[in-house]
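Re: zinc ion structure - here you go.
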Amino acid sequence: MKKNTIKFTVILAIVAMMAFSHTACKDNKVKDNSLLIEASIPYEKKEKIGDYWEYTCPTPNVHKGRNQVKAIVLHHTATESTLSSLKIMTGPKPAGKVSCHVVIAPDGTRYILAPPESITWHAGWSMLNGRNNCNRFTVGIEFQGNTIEQPLTEDQVRSAIDYCLPIMKKYDLKISDIVTHKQIREEYLRNHHAKKVPAKPDITDEEHKRFKEALKKRIK
Ligand SMILES: [Zn+2]
């Protein structure tokens, strides 16, 4: 094929893909297409680490100070697409101060929003091992999707393990230090007579268990 023909074909494919994404909004595979995300979200670096692509797209939504990294908190986004999650978490001053350290798309692509040493806003009202405000000492992983409706993909589990292992090694974390949003929120509620903590369905206990079992196999 001539160079111009190739160029034309590529443009045609992108246009078709974008048109399709408008008409087929319910199709997560289309909406989570990493090329569409790549075209929409500014990023500093893109590299393939092991089996998965990793994009570095720093969020301004971090708190000052240094994260002490005592645990890793799992979440699911419950948003309609990876792109909408990234827009919420990297956008300027979100209303509810929302961010995390990494968003993991269904195909396993990782979007790194902040290094583990940064304090992001993923935990909200929270307590772990008797300590309040988990944002200050935990790393937040957001899995794209809603685990109440659908389990994590195999790629999400494997990619998250790839992400966790170096952090666990550096900060001497155990498998029991991988917790869920629900867990730290419930500990907070048990220990405070909090009346006004809005309910937020998050990653299920089943998926938490599944993740820890997969992690255990990789550590062996
Ligand atoms: Zn959460």
